[in-house]
Design goal:
Chain lengths: ~100, ~220
């Protein structure tokens, strides 16, 4: 099996894209979008993370089992935050009022 | 020593082929990273809950951080990830001195990150933003700001960035060890996957910061 590689030029391209997304994060944080600000900044962060995971971490060349484990980490985190927040947002917090 | 072991001196005996060995090593690292996601995940979950409950205070508190300095630090860390990716590439291409060069470049950029982070911590210490009896922030804007909840924000801030910094310090120690091993010619195109796996760890630490930066520095 020949080792699959990515050219340094492609790495540089991804790096420039990451820096552009960073600038966008800073610019977008000054927009007044209300609760959409969080959605925008997290969407940019997910895009950055995907670039790092797929290109820098070579997940594109990885076996299905390895991809499954990478997805499992994210799934567990989504369950942890999602189910916790389901409780928090639907509860009447009368102990503080 | 078996015949395959002579042909491939780096092949452990429980594996049939080098590909299988590399696959197993990478799978193991990804499983470890999944547990790391959960390790940081507890802090992220706690942060999400209290950000939801005490949003006005969290918004006020985040304005006491230097968004520009944090942004520059994000850039430094992204650059270190590029250097790490190039170190892995050099290992695949069997360029020994470039492996050492890019690994050391990654360590230098990591040191720059921790230096800027340390300066930020020092500044926050002087501004009395460390939770505890001396917590006394200046220039509060909103009437809905609760000092107790604001200390909660800074507890999350120091715990999350501190845990991230600890991961970087461990990573930099490993990078120095790998640079030493690479200089001694331990890695080759045939046997480069330890560098590869080192890279997976470093990129993971980078990704944690990619999420920490917008969540902590610009609550809006």
């Amino acid at each position: 099996m020949a080792e699959k590689t990515i050219s340094p030029r492609a790495y540089l391209g991804v790096y420039i894209a990451l820096l552009a997304l960073l600038v966008l994060t800073i610019v977008a944080s000054n927009w007044h979008l209300g609760s959409l600000n969080l959605v925008v900044s997290l969407t940019i962060a997910v895009a950055k993370a995907l670039l790092v995971v797929v290109i820098f971490m070579h997940l594109q060349f990885e076996h299905t089992v390895t991809r499954l484990f990478a997805a499992m980490g994210i799934l567990c985190l989504a369950l942890l935050i999602g189910l916790t927040m389901c409780d928090v947002v639907s509860r009447t917090w009368n102990m503080y009022s | 020593m078996s015949e395959t072991a002579i042909l491939h001196p780096r092949l452990a005996e429980q594996f049939d082929t080098r590909e299988q060995q590399v696959h197993a090593a990478r799978l193991g690292m990804w499983i470890f990273l999944a547990t790391e996601v959960m390790f940081f995940g507890g802090l992220f979950t706690g942060y999400t809950v209290y950000r939801f409950l005490y949003f006005p205070t969290f918004k006020e508190a985040s304005q006491h951080l230097d968004k520009m300095l944090g942004g520059i630090n994000t850039g430094v860390l992204l650059t270190s990830s590029l250097a790490m990716a190039l170190a892995v590439h050099a290992a695949q291409m069997n360029r020994r001195y470039w492996i050492v060069f890019w690994l050391l470049a990654t360590v230098v950029l990591g040191t720059a990150f921790l230096g800027i982070k340390g300066y930020e911590y020092w500044h926050e210490y002087q501004e009395h933003l460390v939770p505890g009896p001396h917590f006394r922030p200046k220039e509060l804007h909103g009437p809905s700001v609760d000092l107790g909840n604001m200390q909660l924000y800074f507890s999350f801030y120091f715990a999350m960035t501190g845990l991230h910094a600890l991961h970087m310090i461990i990573g930099m120690g490993l990078l120095l060890l790998f640079a030493y091993l690479a200089a001694r010619g331990q890695f080759s195109a045939e046997y480069h996957h330890p560098v590869d796996i080192m890279g997976l760890y470093w990129h993971f630490v980078d990704i944690v910061w990619i999420f920490l930066y917008p969540l902590l520095y610009s609550v809006a």
